[in-house]
Amino acid sequence: MSRIMSHAGSAPSRVSRVARWLAGALLVPALAAAQADTRPVVVVFTFTNSSIGPAKGDFDGIATGIQDLLITDLASNTKIRLVDRSRISEILQEQSMVRGGQIDPQTAVKVGKILGAQYAITGGFMADKSGAAVLTGRTIDIETTQIANPQKITGKSEDVLGLIAQLSSKIGSDMSLAPKSGRRSGDAGDAKSGPAQSGGLTGASKSAQAETFAKVLPASVVEKTMKTKLDAATMKLYSKALDEMDAKNTEKAVDLLKQVKAKSPDFEPAQRNLDKLLAKTGA
User: Fold this and answer.
1) Could you read off the pLDDT of 174-210 as tens digits, one per residue?
2) How far is residue 120 CA from its own chain's centroid?
3) Cβ-count burial of 52 within 10 angstroms (0-12 exposed, 13-18 middle, 19+ buried)?
4) What are the extents of the domains in the chain?
5) Residue 178 — left, alpha, or beta (φ > 0 → left; ψ -120 to 50 → alpha)?
6) Over the Cα atoms of the chain, what is R_g?
7) Any idea which fold 41-217 has?
8) 8 A C-beta contact, residue 127 and residue 82
């Protein structure tokens, strides 16, 4: 009788062990799937202002905004992963690689390696006093340094978001970015990577164990954002706000974002970044 009671008493523990084993067995494939994300990592750099004459000054300072919104739009492409803009800015500041806001192919490749990216997107924009504007873009293979997929979008400077949306659509549909096993920044401590692969990381970048990916927003939010009419002057304000955020000048960034909201109340990125800053300050 005691033996029967003993067996009966141990039944729950056996059930518990079986339950834990089953839970573990189900969890392993899920973890493996998460770790086996082979989608290529793409880094988008600021675009160069190639305008000539008096119009050049009017469009200086909008590069960060173009970069931010192109990342926002491309991040909805489920075939790739986009490095977050703030992470790119952090690395560029740490490495002191950019001179006069120019990103040359060699710099793009070097920073791309640091960020664990397989591809980079660079480009430029040009506008004149008549309101005509051109936005160009291209991809760079970080491993081979090959430049490909050139795109050219023409339009009006009064609709900067429309130009960005067209460029994003062309790049997203035309580029063929094959998955690669390129070294991720999380492997920075791997002795086999060596200084050439790590890009000479310094400061905070050494402690960053993985690149930060851009947040994927709901399709409806992205679509509404890219359909918002935003002229070059308002884009300039938004770009300045992002630059102040990168420089940790929260008060100035908040003021600029409020100005953007006053000019374009439906521009979601301005409200999103404003909410983020106000949440940090407790305002």
Assistant:
1) 777 777 665 444 433 333 333 333 334 444 443 343 4
2) 11
3) exposed
4) 41-217
5) beta
6) 24
7) Rossmann fold (3.40.50)
8) no
